[in-house]
Design brief:
By secondary structure, the protein is α+β, with helices and mostly antiparallel strands. It has one domain: Alpha-Beta Complex (paralog of FGE (formylglycine-generating enzyme)). It contains nine helices and nine strands. The strands form three sheets. The protein has a four-stranded antiparallel sheet. Strands 7-6-8 form a three-stranded mixed sheet, covered by helices on one side. α2 packs antiparallel against α3 and α3 packs antiparallel against α6. About 40% of the residues are buried.
Length: about 400
Amino acid sequence: MRSSPSLPSASETADSVPPLAASPDAPAARGASGRGIRAAIGVSLALGLGAAVYGIVGAVAPRRATGRVEEAPRWSVVEAPAPVALALDEEDLEPPTLEEQRRRLFARMKEGLGLSADQMAAVESIFAASPVLGQGNPALTLHPMSRSECRRIRREAGVVVANEPACGAPGMVPLEGPGASERPVCMDQLEFPNLPCEYPVVHVRAREAALLCRAVGKRICDAHEWEGACAGSVGPAQEEYVWGRPRQETNAHHNVIRQKVWSYGPVEDRARCAMAGWRTPGCPGGGWDKCGSNTFPAGAFPECKSPLGVFDMHGNVAEHMNLPTSDAERGGGGYTEMKGSWFVFATMKAHEDDCHWRAPRWHETRVMSEVSHYNYHLGFRCCKDAGEGSDRDEPAGASEPSAQ
């Protein structure tokens, strides 16, 4: 029997945002009963929907002339038609344990991303070191949309996965703008694992995010790269940051002068993105054993796309980012920063989520700190210096695991 993952400490059960006054209710009859329904449907499909089942056919006589009383129906029992063979859509069946969830995720990553055996071994070792890293607690998580529905939506919308030679990896797009010209960079189109219609990885520390990006030949993104990918143009780093000044001061100044835009346009429209989900009833703001990661499949909202071809920069999961305080800290050596928003923002807007907004110092640590924050609605995506392979140097601070 699988042992229960160790629970987060009290300091880690707080949400990544200030406490919310209200929480939208999950749909009725969800939770254990919802999983029971899914299991029953699976059994019915496996049996062929009709094996050893008999139908009852009723033939009702017309009313008497007086119209006062209807004759009793005359019933006959007939054998049902032969069972119809229905193929079970296995991709929509959720594994009951974290171990099984991880095994399936690893298989899909290896196939869909073309990762080598060494890369997969590095990925699996990072997951194995965490008791909670995955796609959400299987006992609580209820996804609002299935993978097959996501694939249908993308197919009908004509969405295709980018394959840019300059990026050297599938599902990445080159960024544009003055900042991208001085240091060419590509970004994942989707949240990690960057597979269309796969659920994002959550309960991930910033350190683990940086290490997972490195394991697949990439790196964690800098804050200004994410902002530029969202808005359509990356600015020069020396203009996007004020080196040497306190973070609280520089972020406040940045937020005052920022241009308010969203990845999909100049007017906020939360219906375009993966925001119509719900929090698990009783979820206090965080905790593996209290909050399901009720995420949507990545890339399921074709209109939630930036001018540079990056999806889900609003909604689904918030994302870990690197906030450098000097040029030397770019690429993972700076402080933790959270970008975007998450799956309940259609009904609960906990904070701003336009492209250029920078968050306060929530749960701040160095990116490579072993106690960097994680939560049920917090994921990440990766970047990659254009033209570089998997032999990129470690993020600054990787050799100092206890750095705060």
